[in-house]
Amino acid sequence: MVGLLLFLLAGKGHPKPAATSRDRDILLAIRKDWGSPPQLKSWDLTASLNYCTWNGVKCSGGGEGTVTELSLSGLSLTVPVPASVCVLKNLSSLDLSNNHLTGAFPAATLCACKQLRFLDLSHNQFSGPLPRDIDGLSSVMEHLNLSVNSFSGEVPPSVARFPTLKSLLLDTNHFTGAYPAAEISKLAQLDILTLGDNLFAQAPVPTEFAKLTKLTSLWMDAMDLTGEIPEALASLTELMLLSMHSNNLTGSIPAWVWQHRKLEYVDLSANSLSGELPRNVTAVSLIELDVSANQLTGEIPAGFGNLKDLEFMSLSENQFTGPIPASIGLLPQLRYIWIHGNRLSGELPLELGKHSPLVSLVVADNNLSGPLPETLCANGELNVIDVSNNSFSGELPANLGNCIKLDSLLISNSRFSGPIPTSLPIGLQQFRAENNRLSGPLPADMGKLSNLTHLSLRGNRITGPIP
Ligand SMILES: *[C@@H]1O[C@H](CO)[C@@H](O)[C@H](O)[C@H]1NC(C)=O
Ligand SMILES: *[C@@H]1O[C@H](CO)[C@@H](O)[C@H](O)[C@H]1NC(C)=O
Ligand SMILES: *[C@@H]1O[C@H](CO)[C@@H](O)[C@H](O)[C@H]1NC(C)=O
Ligand SMILES: *[C@@H]1O[C@H](CO)[C@@H](O)[C@H](O)[C@H]1NC(C)=O
Ligand SMILES: *[C@@H]1O[C@H](CO)[C@@H](O)[C@H](O)[C@H]1NC(C)=O
Ligand SMILES: *[C@@H]1O[C@H](CO)[C@@H](O)[C@H](O)[C@H]1NC(C)=O
Ligand SMILES: *[C@@H]1O[C@H](CO)[C@@H](O)[C@H](O)[C@H]1NC(C)=O
User: Fold this and answer.
1) CA 223 to the chain's CA centroid
2) Which of 13, 134, 376, 419 has the smallest number of Cβ neighbours within 10 A?
3) From which residue to which does the signal peptide run (predicted)?
4) Averaged confidence pLDDT in the chain
5) Which range of residues forms the domain containing residue 32?
């Protein structure tokens, strides 16, 4: 009777849908069922009457609407999500990522959320197998993120039985056996697919994935892939990220990797890829390229000069020969050049460091010759110079002191000559220059290098006292 009266009064004074106060009461019930954790302290009428302002609560249409999202990431929650959460009839997004949640996948609870489109359980400590009937989750699921947990067992085919799925993130778990490649390849709307860092049985890259033409991210690191990267994946023209590092891939890198214009991040490092790279490279959006630790041969393509956005280039630990193309010295964004452990020869590009904010130059273990370019310290961003084990010669650039951020200067085993520049970078921590032909006294400024922890100059012709 009192309830009816209140309802009528409320209905008169503040015309609102009945759902409104229900959602408030449901939130209070959820908080209680969850054991009233301090993280949900703001879920309290004394804090705010408007529950849509409570921590992590989002409503549709703003104000006191219906609750559509709970974003409870990074709250150190440890207690499992209570069943009452799905009493929120319009809940479409539930983010519980970056907490300390444990136990099995909370299927019984979450399958009751009939409007759920977005579920993020990533970065928790969930364990055990996924339920065979995980497709009992809402049929309108679009984003399922289970990455970085301890889920194990085989991935059930039902995980791909959501016709509108756009993201499927299963990486960094303990999944074993085969994963349901055929079912996944039917997810025509799929945008993001991550499977890497699992204990899957050794298997080739599924050619069926060629059907996933809307993919922008394909992440298959460290999951025991064998065989070649399929030519058929050339159909993935929307790809921005391709990562398959630390597998056992063989054969050459397919041409499409060097052509797809939307690719920004390519990491194929630590495989057994072989063959030469094409001269012409038209994947002009590349920002990071890592093909290190393979068995690639031939020359570094001059076409890398097209990669105007390239910031990170690692070609190290391969068998590349020939010179470093001059065009690489002109790239405007290049910060990291890691090409150590190859058989490169010739000189460093003339204006290296002048056109881009170079941070790290690691070219050790090659047969590079000539002097270090005067331009290396042009913008003062350099942090590491490692040119050890080459055939460099000439004097060290007099302006090395302009590299104010330099902490490692490694020039051992070359034929550098002349004096050590009078001003060395003040932050220097490592300076190794064994087995060169450096001569003359040490600079007086050397005593100011308070951070120097590794200094090695033997095998030179240095004279005079230590300052
Ligand atoms: C809430 O869900 C119901 C059906 O479950 C629907 O009729 C209603 O329009 C939804 N409200 C909002 C604001 O999404
Ligand atoms: C999980 O995946 C979803 C969907 O792709 C994404 O929006 C979300 O940011 C991811 N979560 C984390 C913690 O990265
Ligand atoms: C695959 O790669 C792993 C790690 O790189 C290595 O330990 C293993 O021997 C390789 N297996 C084969 C068959 O090449
Ligand atoms: C490089 O590829 C582009 C686009 O495919 C083409 O227009 C150009 O002629 C090619 N250049 C060379 C030198 O092959
Ligand atoms: C290294 O290059 C120099 C010429 O700069 C050449 O004389 C020498 O034979 C090369 N060494 C090796 C091991 O290729
Ligand atoms: C240079 O070569 C020596 C001997 O081959 C090796 O021990 C050392 O690790 C190499 N240094 C670098 C920086 O690659
Ligand atoms: C010396 O090292 C410390 C600790 O690594 C660092 O904070 C400081 O900036 C360094 N000094 C210079 C001059 O780089």
Assistant:
1) 16
2) 13
3) 1-15
4) 92
5) 1-52
